[in-house]
Structure formats: structure tokens, C-alpha cells
Design brief:
Blueprint: H1 6-20, H2 31-36, E1 41-45, H3 49-53, H4 74-83, E2 88-94, H5 124-134, E3 138-144, H6 176-190, E4 196-200, H7 211-221, E5 226-229, E6 241-244, H8 245-248, E7 260-265, H9 286-298, E8 301-306, H10 317-332
Parallel strand pairs: 1-2, 1-8, 2-3, 3-4, 4-5, 6-7, 7-8
Helix pairs in contact: 4-5, 6-7, 9-10
Length: 341
């Protein structure tokens, strides 16, 4: 038999050497995780009652009559994402107000409250997924788990003698996990294949201990969907490492070889829902955003940039212009284009 050369012997010994040093072998990645590592650049879309209530932390008791996006056009969102070189988009299906952007069979605390929008018969989730697919964008849906979002400190304490909803409809009280499973099942069975399910607050004090059970259930519904747990730093909790940049200004380490995503917002001050950008400081500089996108790409992390629609339901004004600037900078320099299939 031919003798193995020295390089071959060293490669053969590496796993054993790693074990002797106490190193953890790299986890095996699924085809979906490897594909996710090539998405590179995406659009986060925060849009719900908070857009009209002027807050990032709607508590669920705000006047639903405020929701009145008379020019809403999810196709315009998707076109803006494509123009900037993005490959996927993520919509906040249910944020801290607990109102789902579709007609849920489980509660009336959903889009049917918005009587000024399509006479209470809209389905923004359907419009969003159709717009993304028609333009070749991967579809991501965001869902917020329960938490302490409504109090005097946030300026949205529940009305007198009304319960704190903790980010879910009143029907969820007493069984948060059961309600969320049923509502997430609606999302994952009524809208076709979902590429990314983006879970916020997975480690909350109310349901954290049951996250493995919930995650396994979601995988049973859509095995090929990437399930991302916001701010998870281990693949034991999430299909990808997650970094909420405005929170701790952290990125994956140099040399990262695991699927990862960094979310950020085009607006300054860690503001996620639309605010009027009146002065330059209201938005992050385009050069900073483009540089961060490139750095994420160099560290094998996707960069998910929030570009919130305005109260007409459009990506517009300074936010739209800033996104166009970022896209132009990325095209002009070392790019963050999606990896070839």
C-alpha cells in the first residue's frame, strides 16, 4: 500500500488533538444552514400599530383606529430591497402589541381590529410573502414571545383595571406556550414554505424553559425553515448565531465559521419602527452601514438592516434615500452579494 504523506497524517490526527485539548468539534450544519450563510444582506421591516402610535414598545391597548396606511404596497418594499442588493426580508408579523398582521382564528386581537385598513379584512402577511416571492426574495417572518413590555417606564402602562397583556392577546393568558404554538402553526401552514422564522425574546422569563419543546414543534411543521432565536449565541438554541447590534454593538468574532446574523436599524438611537427623520443624526451614516455590512460578510454573518415603512405604508423619504446610498456603496466597493448556489 502506498504510504500516507505527513500532511495526510496530520489531518488524520487533528480530531484527536482537538479532543485532547478540550476543544469542541464544529457542529454539523444542515443544507439550510449552509444556504443561510450565503444570504448576506436582508431587510428587516418593523411595521404594526407602533408605527402609528410613535413608539417601539406598543402595549396592545393603543387605539387601533390609528392604523391607516392608505398607500401600503409590499411590492414597493420588496423592490427597495432588491435595488439595494438584498436577498431576503423579514416582517414583524406580531410585535409587542400582540396584534397579528393577519386574521387569526384564535383571537380578535389581530388585523381585524384595523377597521381603517381594508375595512378590517386585510392580510399584510399574505401581501408580503407574495411580494417577496414574486421578486425572488427569501421570506422571513418575525414573532415576538411574551415579556414585560407595558409599564409606566415605557409610557404604555395598561389602562386602569385592565391586565398586562405581556405582548400576547388576552386569550393567551394562562397558557402562553399553547397559544403561541397554535398561532405559529397558523403562520407556518397558511403561507407556504417560510425560509426564516425570526423569534424575539425566546429567553423571556415566562416561557424560556420550554423553548426546546417549542423549537422542536416548529421544526415538525417546517423542517427546512431556519429558526433564529434573537441574541442566541449557540446553535443549541438557534439555527444561527444572532447579534442585535444596537443592543450591545457586538459582531461575530473574526474567523467565525458558523451561520450567523447581525440585525441593525437604519435609524439612529436603536429605533426600529418608523419615525420622521428630520435631521441627519436621525439616521445612521450610509458609510457606517455599508462598512458594517462588509464586516459582517467577512465574518460569515448576514446583515439584516431594518428599513421601516412610514405611516402611508411605504419605504420613503430619508430612510429610502439612505438605503439607496448604502446599496450604491456596496455595489461600488467589495460587495456582500449572495454566494452562488
Amino acid at each position: 500500500m502506498p504510504r500516507p504523506n505527513a500532511a495526510f497524517l496530520m489531518l488524520a490526527l487533528l480530531p484527536g488533538l482537538a479532543a485532547l485539548r478540550g476543544a469542541t468539534p464544529a457542529p454539523a450544519l444542515s443544507p439550510e444552514q449552509r444556504d443561510f450563510m450565503g444570504w448576506k444582506f436582508g431587510m428587516f421591516i418593523h411595521f404594526n400599530l407602533a408605527t402609528f402610535a410613535g413608539t417601539d414598545w406598543a402595549g396592545g391597548y393603543e387605539d387601533p383606529g390609528l392604523f391607516d396606511p392608505r398607500k401600503l404596497d409590499c411590492g414597493q418594499w420588496a423592490d427597495a430591497a432588491k435595488e439595494a442588493g438584498m436577498t431576503y426580508a423579514v416582517l414583524t408579523v406580531k410585535h409587542t402589541e400582540g396584534i397579528a398582521l393577519y386574521d387569526s382564528a384564535l383571537t380578535g386581537h389581530d388585523i381585524t381590529l384595523f377597521r381603517n385598513f381594508r375595512n378590517g379584512r386585510g392580510d399584510i402577511v399574505r401581501e408580503f410573502v407574495d411580494a417577496c416571492r414574486s421578486r425572488g426574495l427569501k421570506v422571513g417572518l418575525y414573532y415576538c414571545f411574551p415579556g414585560d413590555y407595558s409599564d409606566v417606564g415605557h409610557g404604555n402602562a395598561p389602562p386602569p383595571n385592565m391586565p398586562n397583556l405581556h405582548g400576547l392577546p388576552a386569550e393567551a393568558a394562562g397558557d402562553y406556550v399553547g397559544f403561541m404554538k397554535r398561532q405559529l402553526a397558523e403562520i407556518l401552514t397558511n403561507y407556504g414554505a417560510i425560509d426564516l422564522l425570526w423569534i424575539d425574546q425566546y429567553a423571556n422569563p415566562y416561557t424560556a424553559d420550554r423553548w426546546p419543546e417549542i423549537r422542536a414543534y416548529l421544526k415538525s411543521l417546517q423542517p427546512h425553515c431556519i429558526i433564529l432565536a434573537n441574541n442566541a449565541r449557540t446553535l443549541a438554541d438557534s439555527d444561527a448565531l444572532s447579534y442585535e447590534y444596537p443592543w450591545k454593538s457586538e459582531l461575530p468574532p473574526p474567523g467565525n465559521a458558523l451561520p450567523a446574523e447581525v440585525c441593525d436599524t437604519i435609524q439612529s438611537g436603536a429605533r426600529w419602527f418608523w419615525r420622521a427623520a428630520i435631521q441627519p443624526a436621525d439616521l445612521q451614516p450610509a458609510a457606517d452601514l455599508a462598512a458594517r455590512a462588509r464586516e459582517c460578510s467577512q465574518r460569515n454573518a448576514n446583515y439584516l438592516l431594518d428599513v421601516p415603512p412610514d405611516r402611508d405604508g411605504l419605504i420613503s423619504g430619508p430612510q429610502q434615500s439612505r438605503l439607496q446610498e448604502v446599496g450604491a456603496l456596496l455595489r461600488a466597493g467589495p460587495g456582500v452579494a449572495a454566494s452562488p448556489k
